[in-house]
Amino acid sequence: MTFSIAGFCPRSGQYGIALSSSSIAVAARCPWLMSGVGAVSSQNVTLPALGPKILARLAQGENAPDALAAEMAAEPFADWRQVTVLNSKQSAVWSGAHTLGTHHHCQGLNCVAAGNMLASPTVIEAMVRVFCRDPQQSLGDRLIAALQAGLQEGGEAGPVYSAGMKVVSSESWPLTDLRVDWHEQDAIGELARLWQRWQPQSEAYLTRAINPVDAPSYGVPGDE
Hints:
This protein is α+β, with helices and mostly antiparallel strands. It has helices spanning about 50-60, 65-75, 120-130, 140-150, 185-210, and strands spanning about 1-10, 15-20, 30-35, 40-45, 80-85, 90-95, 105-110, 110-115, 160-170, 175-180.
């Protein structure tokens, strides 16, 4: 029901997750990030609480495999969970025995991707390959390109109806938080279009938050 990719950009220090699903509002439940710490995607039969719990362990200095293993050992329904974890040094993946349909995961340089109910395992491999292709691109561009590559490789076994992307940097709030909660035909395409609209404005919104004196105009009537 879900395929996702988490990525880290050493140049900017940003973490991000892009994902899609046949379920409604996937980005409301699955992606969890903490500035300067890492990224977690809790999917398949999703338990959102796993995200904050694993991030808390990473923040306390545990490595990704140990943090994931500890939470899975304590989770009574671990066999139904699929979870990816990423920090600046390593990644880890859990796919329980009851992960749905064709499922797969793939770890690459500064990224990890996983999915279930896939058309093919190569969906996940294509996502990692595209993400790693050009490290000089912005993290958001790489995440969107990876999600599109997964779709082009076959995506889910069924239709995709929701998608999202979240990115954090040095601030305590998300730099980017885009969601397509339901789209009948092209959720990933709609997410890509939102990103193209949001990206050129994102730095201006950040400046407005940190120092309104230096902010550009708001671009609305009355503030030209």
